[in-house]
Amino acid sequence: MIVLKLGGSVITHKDRAETLDGASLEQAADSIARALENEGGALEGGLVLVHGGGSFGHHNASEHGVSTTTGTHDAGAVLEIHGAMKTLNQFVLTRLLERDVQAVPVHPFSTACRDGDGALELPTSQVKSMLAEGFVPVLHGDVIAQTGRGATVVSGDELVVELARALEADRIGLCSTVPGVLDEEDAVIERISNYEAVESVLGASETTDVTGGMAGKVNGLLELEGASSIFGLDGLASFLEGKNPGTTIE
Ligand code: IP8
What we know:
It is built from nine helices and twelve strands.
């Protein structure tokens, strides 16, 4: 099976609060629908989708000073951040359903939590049942309760790593705004097998992003057993056909 993340900055306009990038979301939904129609293709083992926040969630989280490590005990703040992410999730589900993709929501706030050290606990039995019944579960970056800190942000990237591990994913894909991890000359780095080799070129994210940026993504993916790919929207169809566009991380 495949775990695929649609980056928040791919499906939204990240610099304008709560603005969907409808054209990009539709392009992604088209690629997913086409790949699922292809019986016996790379998606035969099932697909779990995760999406990030982009201009939904991040603005609300930074307004309330909430990040992956700084929490809040204000339920109003939790509802705002979670509500923004549910709105975006609904947009994603609708675009997929319009294309006959049997997409269903899984909201991390209601299922996951962090322990006092920040370790993520994400139950996956419901995701496994959904997959077995032919659904495409769609999770998203969210706020979740954390022991001793109220509620903190969980990024879609962390969910991808945890899902890939728990579901023993064969392939992991991160669809980003860039065609892969870029070097100093903006050329795509084909393969990354250790973090130190690329540390200097992995800058922080430029717009409001309370989670890790490219460095965090690469670090998380390097922890996994299997190979993963980071690619742009134009590489999505090829990834879903079983190819390795962009940067391969293993
Ligand atoms: O865009 C973060 O998810 P990400 C979600 O995958 C929130 O980092 C609530 C800021």
